[in-house]
Write a structure and sequence with these properties.
It contains 10 helices and 8 strands. With about 350 residues, the protein is an alpha/beta fold.
């Protein structure tokens, strides 16, 4: 284990030297994540890029604090990190993911890895096949998915990092790796690619839970269509993942209620565990965001049999116009807003 930590530290030192950052000091006794109980998490995949750009983070009193440590102090216990295949700027490639995962592990976070199977954003509007995979047929794409998944996860494993959850694709409500894996065109192809990812994850981390993640958690018809299609074609998954993004103060209650109804249907229909892998609301509506999150977490935790297992805020640390994203949970001075109090309150309830 000491070798693993030494290897990761050497790599982190090289990476951060190249980026103009000091390497993070490893915890001599890394905290062991508590894999029991409800996951309260955040996707912070922008973090290293933000740090390179000079962004800093502050607690409520104005004290500069490392971002993950700050989130930990607010009650979060899990970190989600996206992986791109060959991004042009290097951010969110497997080496960058290692740096962030190493830091998260040493703070005692549970870890989710989110494979986009693309060089860029994969979402309901974009599931662009990586440039290096563009001319591949289905069998070759399956092999590429498996190899990329194994290489990334083995890099983590070699450095003593074991993710608890792994997404085989991001917001794949219409499949992935278009056009070959577009679900509305060929559900069997999408299923084959999904299963290639699933099997690759299990070959490295047999105990990791593999997530199939869709957008619009309030849309029951979408989820029934996609998961019925996967099931008919022999699709594999352990967890159904959802995104939920209310427009603001006017519709969050309705979307929460529809999402909870959808969650209950997914549990009943497929026997699946369900997580909400992404949420967000406008940063300048923090009271509404707190109410939205508190209500959603409470309703999820009232679902019996531990079938509803966690929630992740998407990039809460983004602030002051970062990448044009306005749904973070930090204000323009780099301090967390009251939106994240919903996580603090939930953490206190869980610990009692």
């Amino acid at each position: 284990m000491k070798y693993f930590h030494k290897t990761a530290l050497i790599f982190c030192s090289i990476f951060f030297a190249c980026c103009g950052k000091d390497a993070p000091e490893p915890d001599p006794k890394p905290q062991t994540p508590d894999a029991s109980g409800y996951a309260l998490g955040a996707d912070v995949s922008w973090l290293t890029e933000m740090e390179k750009a000079g962004r800093k983070f502050y607690d409520a009193s104005g004290k500069e604090t490392e971002c993950m440590e700050l989130l930990r102090s607010l009650g979060l216990n899990s970190i989600r990190l996206r992986v791109w295949v060959n991004p042009s700027d290097g951010w969110c490639n497997k080496e960058d993911v290692l740096v962030k995962a190493f830091r998260a592990k040493n703070l005692g976070f549970r870890i989710m890895i989110d494979f986009h199977y693309s060089d860029v954003w994969a979402d309901p509007s974009h599931q662009t096949t990586p440039a290096a995979w563009q001319n591949m047929n289905l069998e070759e794409l399956k092999q590429a998915v498996a190899l990329h998944t194994k290489e990334t996860l083995n890099l983590l494993k070699t450095n003593g990092i074991s993710p608890e959850w792994v997404q085989a694709g991001n917001e794949t409500g219409n499949g992935m790796l278009w056009e070959t894996g577009k679900a509305s065109v060929n559900m069997a192809n999408y299923t084959a690619l999904n299963n290639a990812g699933y099997d690759a994850v299990k070959s490295v981390f047999p105990d990791a839970k593999v997530i199939v993640h869709l957008h619009n958690g309030q849309d029951n018809s979408l989820y029934r269509w996609l998961f019925d299609g996967l099931k008919k074609n022999g699709g594999k998954w352990d967890v159904i993942g959802m995104s939920l993004y209310p427009e603001g103060e006017s519709d969050w209650q309705q979307k929460n209620n529809s999402c909870i109804a959808n969650i209950k249907d997914m549990i009943s229909r497929y026997g699946s565990e369900v997580m909400i892998c992404e949420v967000g609301m406008p940063w300048d509506k923090p009271a509404a965001a707190k109410a939205f999150l508190a209500d959603l977490i409470a309703q999820m935790q009232n679902i019996p049999d531990d079938k509803c297992s966690g929630i992740f805020y998407w990039e809460p640390e983004s602030y002051n116009g970062w990448k044009g994203y306005t749904l973070g949970a930090f204000d323009n001075s780099g301090k967390p807003t009251e939106a994240l109090d919903a996580f603090t309150d939930a953490s206190l309830r869980i610990s009692q």
